[in-house]
UniProtKB/TrEMBL annotation:
PROSITE patterns: 5_NUCLEOTIDASE_2 (PS00786)
Annotated source species: Levilactobacillus koreensis
Keywords for the protein's UniProt record, in alphabetical order: Hydrolase, Nucleotide-binding, Signal
Alphabetical GO biological process terms: nucleotide catabolic process
Protein's name according to its UniProt entry: 2', 3'-cyclic nucleotide 2'-phosphodiesterase
GO terms assigned for molecular function: hydrolase activity, acting on ester bonds; metal ion binding; nucleotide binding
GO CC terms in record: outer membrane-bounded periplasmic space
Highest classification ranks of the organism: Bacteria, Bacillati, Bacillota, Bacilli, Lactobacillales
Length: 518
């Protein structure tokens, strides 16, 4: 008997193979391609093949397609779940980004789901009607297969409290230790579907990041006996292999691949062979049936994205060299900070150039440009910080850079491995500061001034930032909800649009308030 476990994860609403940067953009990914891969695998399965399919989270938020649905009436918000329902998944798991629009949105978006949502470590999830069960046991061809659902316990660190009201997130490993032995007694095969990644190299156990509880994948492999297959996600990595004796997958993001775990069983339902691989989606066509379901909305999304938002005069806000923008500042980043300061009623703000695909704004700004440049539904907070807090935060920013062998400046490995985290480097406005990269990490901020005066450790400074950073996300423990003095519970993309409504013509200006020496 052959069991094949297929999984998608972190598709982030990318239904079609486009990043929506232009009408004609095409990329080798998307759920409609993943659907074709899954259907092909199902169609070619032999009589003794058992297929299990899992949607592993971060499906409802991300692409402009998903953003558009989130802005529609509740009765029209379930299209993404109708897609996965039509793909006949056996189970789904909530990712951390599912919570970005709150529990009511999860209920509306998942209202017509045809498969159970599993979440063993989200206490209160069933009471809030966003989960169906901690696990599911399915019987296929006489084989009992248990699927245990887990979500990264780090959600409360990033998410607004109102978006997760009534929920408690327990550690994934502790939950698995409790339930896997029970499932071993009830099922022949135990699958753990975890919307989380790896805090250590899955083969060697060597730590690859701080042990915060965000990613517990290696601990699941090494410390929880009885797991037959591990489906992971969250980090957007492409991983497939047998680690600590457990076949494991993580299929990247945006539907670039489908995770595939193969188990061979003997007549007593014992595993005799195990393997894991990724099935790339680049070379397949879009699923025709799902295209018929989604094309009308896709057309509306493209039209919606091309609506004008505002105009830019003065210095260009187009980002053509992301690394130079991070090293020397950029008018686009200065503008985003300007929006934050206006909304937060303060004169200091911080923002990030989230990734190298952020292109900023042309002279005529469209909604398409805006959502591609600020793709996250972050809201805004203002925190009252000490001068010492701000200096620590800037030291974290300064650690983003490293001087390479050719004496050029590159991105430090800690921000690229195991996961690319360019969004964890911030650029500030309202402060004058200087980094010296020849100094050791932790001592690189050599000048810090506010209104022309050196910032003292005991000074109090009000700083606007997005709510992810304000909660300490990205390894910024000097920020926390306890220091928030004002909240602006409006998505940043909406705040930018509101700014353009008041200032339909924005004058771009160079950013000159900081310097990086090396």
């Amino acid at each position: 008997m052959h069991i094949q476990i297929l999984s998608t994860s972190d598709v982030h609403g990318y239904v079609y193979p486009t990043d929506y940067s232009t009408l004609t953009d095409r990329h080798p990914y998307g759920m409609l391609k993943a659907a074709t891969v899954i259907r092909q695998a199902q169609a070619t399965a032999g009589a003794d093949n058992v297929m299990v399919t899992i949607e592993n989270g971060d499906w409802l938020q991300g692409a402009p397609f998903a953003t558009y649905l989130a802005k529609q009436p509740a009765a029209e918000q379930d299209l993404l779940t109708r897609i996965t329902g039509a793909m006949h998944y056996d189970a789904g798991v909530l990712g951390n980004h599912e919570f970005n629009y709150g529990l009511a949105y999860i209920r509306a978006a998942e209202a017509k789901r045809t498969y159970p949502l599993l979440g063993a470590n989200i206490v209160g999830g069933q009471n809030q009607r966003i989960l169906d069960a901690p696990y599911k046991i399915v019987t296929k061809q006489g084989i009992k297969i248990a699927i245990l659902g887990l979500t990264t316990a780090y959600v409360p660190v990033w998410e607004r409290a109102s978006n997760i009201a009534g929920l408690t997130f327990e550690p994934a490993v502790a939950t698995a230790r409790r339930l896997v032995p029970e499932l071993r007694q009830q099922a022949d095969i135990v699958i753990v579907a975890y919307h989380g990644g790896f805090e250590a190299d899955p083969a060697t156990g060597v730590p690859t990041e701080r042990q915060t509880g965000e990613n517990e994948g290696y601990q699941l492999l090494a410390e929880v006996p009885g797991i037959d297959a591990l489906v992971t996600g969250h980090q957007h990595r492409q991983i497939a292999g047998v680690y600590q004796g457990v076949p494991t997958t993580q299929p990247g993001d945006k539907g670039i691949a489908v995770g595939c775990i193969d188990l061979e069983l003997d007549e007593n339902h014992r595993i005799t062979k195990r393997s894991a691989r990724l099935l790339p989606t680049a070379g397949v066509e879009l699923d025709v049936t799902l295209m018929q379901l989604t094309q009308p909305v896709q057309d509306k999304v493209e039209t919606w994205l091309d609506q004008p938002v505002g105009q830019i005069t003065g210095t260009s806000l187009a980002v053509t060299d992301p690394m130079a923008a991070r090293l020397h500042g950029h008018p686009y980043l200065r503008f985003i900070n300007q929006v934050e300061m206006a909304a937060g009623v303060t004169d200091i703000a911080a923002t990030a150039l989230f990734n190298d695909e952020v292109h900023g704004f042309d002279r005529n700004v469209s909604l398409r440009q805006l959502l591609n440049s600020y793709p996250y539904p972050n809201t805004l907070v203002v925190e009252r910080l000490t001068g010492a807090d701000v200096k620590l935060a800037l030291e974290r920013c300064a650690s983003f850079f490293e001087i390479q062998a050719d004496h050029q400046v590159g991105v430090a490995t800690a921000f690229t491995t195991p996961k690319v985290e360019l969004y964890n480097y911030d650029i500030y406005s309202g402060l004058d500061y200087r980094f010296d990269l020849t100094q050791p990490r932790g001592s690189r901020v050599v000048s810090l001034k506010y209104h022309g005066r050196a910032v003292q450790p005991t000074d109090q400074l009000d700083v606007a930032m997005n709510q992810y950073r304000g909660n300490g996300g990205g390894d910024y423990p000097m920020f926390s909800p306890a220091k928030v003095i004002r909240e602006v519970n409006v998505d940043m993309a909406e705040l930018i649009m509101q700014y353009f409504e008041v200032h339909p013509v924005v004058t771009g200006k160079p950013q000159t308030n900081f310097r990086v020496d090396y």
